[in-house]
Amino acid sequence: MKPDAQRTPFTDPGDEAARVLEAQRGSQAAFAEIVRGYQRAVYRVAYGVLRNATDADDITQETFLKAWRALARFRVGEPLYPWLARIAVNSAFTMLRVRRRRPEAPLEPMLEAGRQWAAGEDPADVAATSERDRRLEQAFAVLSEEHRAVLVLRVVEDMPYEEIARALNVPVGTVMSRLSRARAELRARFRALTGGTS
User: Are 172 and 165 in contact, with CB atoms under 8 Å apart?
Assistant: First the structure.
């Protein structure tokens, strides 16, 4: 699978540039095409940082609202996705900072448990098969915001280092060192949670 094909809705960079130009001239239809093309990718980035589907939905909407407002400043010809990813990452970081000041209990685990019972699945089977994933999720959740963001952009979105650098507004060398530290930290935290068995 080609990561660019998964991420980019436009077969030719010129198509993307044309949509951006139309949107900059006020075409809501052209901007709607951009949203449709990148909505899932932006959601994956937001979810990767926030680990909460409702918050990721909110950040996805906020990202495109901010993009629409700032589109006039976007340089046509530059790749659009790193710019959108940067808006999503920054918005997610802001949400996390606000949450630290006002913590709230997440409802998603309770809702998910309810869906499993309603679906007639045996909770013991579900727990046994998802233990490794749960521990990996726990290890990922305690990483710093910067480490979560760089891992999501590289591992989930399969972005090249140069695009990640644009998305995070840091040098490529910083991306590489953050990624190396993030992977090492994730491995160490996962091993600690599994008693060093994985």
Answer: yes
Structure tokens at 196: 């060093």
The per-residue pLDDT string of the chain (198 residues; one tens digit each, 9 = 90 and over) reads 344 444 556 666 778 999 999 999 999 999 999 999 999 999 999 999 998 899 999 999 999 999 999 999 999 989 999 999 999 999 999 998 887 765 544 444 444 444 444 444 555 555 544 677 788 888 888 888 899 999 999 988 889 999 999 999 999 999 999 999 999 998 898 888 877 655
Q: Judge if pTM exceeds 0.90.
A: no
Close Cβ partners of 29 (under 8 Å, ≥ 6 residues apart): 22
| Count of Cβ atoms closer than 10 Å to residue 142 Cβ | 12
* Sequence-separated (6 or more) residues with CB below 8 Å from residue 52: 106, 108
What the block records as the tokens of 24 is 């900059």
CA 53 to chain centre: 11
168 touches 150 (CB < 8 A)? yes
